[in-house]
Amino acid sequence: MSSLEQLYQQVILDHSRARHGAGPLDGVDASSHQVNPTCGDEVTLGVRLTDGRISHLAWEGDGCSISRASLSMLSDLVDGKTTDEAARLYAAMETMMHSRNLGVPDEVLDLLGDAAALEGTSQFANRVKCSLLGWYALRDALAQLGTDLAEGTRA
């Protein structure tokens, strides 16, 4: 395993343990419950919007280290962001996770910060679902509030 792969593995494990954003869904405007039927990962993610910004995001769930790490990274990435900024992050994450680990532009990886550590999981279809579970919950919750992340600005 290369030193970069070891670093990425450590970033995933650290976020899996830290679980940024995990907690009660009190005070959210909308929430979404998502399940990965392949492995049983589950998440309920709630979001509050204030003046077009994600002012609060919380999630509760059970799952593998990849889904928990991705949720933690998602929480860090979208905290305080506008819905347009969240749409760019969503597009970048989808681009990376559908790359089959064949590479994505550096701009995409830079935009994703720690979440770029999940790029290696894109070569495994079951792990793609784990990595995107929280992102799909965010998309659904925001859609309930009239914002479709998939229609937003692309990375």
Write up this protein.
The structure is a single chain. The protein has helices spanning 3-18, 65-78, 83-97, 106-112, 125-144, and strands at residues 30-35, 42-50, 53-62. The chain is of the alpha+beta class. The protein has one domain (3-151): Sufe protein. Chain: A (Alpha-Beta Complex), CATH 3.90.1010.10. A three-stranded antiparallel sheet has the order 1-2-3. Helix 2 packs parallel to helix 5 (125-144) and helix 3 (83-97) runs antiparallel to helix 5 (125-144). The longest helix is centred in the C-terminal third of the chain and has 20 residues, at 125-144. The protein is globular and about 45 Å long. The model has no long low-confidence stretch (mean pLDDT 93).
